[in-house]
TrEMBL record:
It holds the Pfam family SBP_bac_11. Belongs to the bacterial solute-binding protein ModA family. PANTHER family: MOLYBDATE-BINDING PERIPLASMIC PROTEIN, SULFATE-BINDING PROTEIN. InterPro entries: ModA, ModA/WtpA. PROSITE patterns: PROKAR_LIPOPROTEIN. Residues 1-24 form the signal peptide. This is Molybdate ABC transporter substrate-binding protein.
């Protein structure tokens, strides 16, 4: 092999080594880029709002049992969040909200009550109906006065408790009694449905008009007597995040949760109907 030939072979070998080295470096650089790029999971986690603090929920008295259970489930789903409830008559709660009471969510027992808050600019977005409820006659176990119809509530000696007409259960009672053509004078008017039910529990009255869900929750002490006119006075329950909610993310999340499949199971089991 001549000297010139040897020089050509050496040059070719050197070129091949350089080419292989460049390829290897390019391959390692691609791998490093993939390793340092953010993952899709990481991006999604960063985008999701992290909930914290308290979520103050003003809710109708008839939601006490179910919302207490839903509140615990919500806290489990969102560690670090505490749900606080203020249960009472829907109309009184609406007045408090309109007067500036600090609340994140309002769940009312009637659309007309929610409207008093939305008309005052207190609702963030639009309220959504999430359940409905109907009335029944609550009587002591065994129904000692043998109440079978709304007309029986006018029998002499039968003492009846109703909700005040300003609250949803009272307005529904007025509608049902009117549909039945019954003129009834109660011995007491209560500010929420729990008050009317308690009067029966304590034996202070012989009957009261309350929601079916309340009787179902208190089945150990109370019997319920259904009546056809109840279908004329069905109450839709709306829920909404409030415009001045201190915890806006928490409010939105709770409203969404109440409309979830998990919450629906709890509400249906308690006797509420789908909206």
């Amino acid at each position: 092999m001549t000297t010139s030939t040897r020089r050509l072979v050496v040059a070719a070998a050197a070129a091949l080594v350089l080419s292989l080295g460049a390829t290897a470096c390019g391959s390692d650089g691609g791998k490093t880029g993939a390793d340092t790029a953010p993952t899709a999971t990481g991006s999604a986690s960063a985008a999701a709002p992290k909930l914290s603090g308290e979520v103050n929920v003003f809710a109708a008295a008839s939601l006490t049992g179910t919302f207490t259970e839903l509140g615990k489930k919500f806290e489990t789903n969102y560690p670090g969040v505490k749900v606080k409830f203020n249960f009472g008559g829907s109309s009184a709660l609406a007045q408090s909200i309109n007067a500036g009471a600090p609340a994140d969510v309002f769940a009312a027992a009637s659309t007309s009550t929610m409207k008093t808050v939305s008309d005052a600019g207190g609702v963030n977005g639009t309220a959504a109906n999430f359940v409905r409820n109907t009335l029944t006659i609550a009587v002591p176990k065994g129904n000692p006065k043998h109440v079978a119809t709304l007309k029986d509530l006018t029998t002499p000696g039968v003492k009846v408790a109703l909700c005040a007409k300003e609250v949803p259960c009272g307005a529904a009672a007025v509608t049902a009694l009117k549909a039945a053509g019954v003129d009834l004078t109660p011995v007491t008017l209560e500010q929420d449905v729990k008050g009317a039910l308690t009067k029966v529990e304590l034996g202070e009255v012989d009957a009261s008009l309350v929601y079916r869900t309340d009787v179902k929750a208190d089945a150990a002490k109370i019997d319920g007597v259904d009546f056809p006119e109840a279908e004329k006075a069905v109450n839709d329950y709306p829920i909404a995040a409030l415009a001045k909610a201190p915890n806006k993310d928490g409010a939105a999340a709770f409203v969404a949760y109440v409309q979830s499949a998990e919450a629906r199971q709890v509400l249906t089991a308690a006797g509420f109907q789908a909206p």
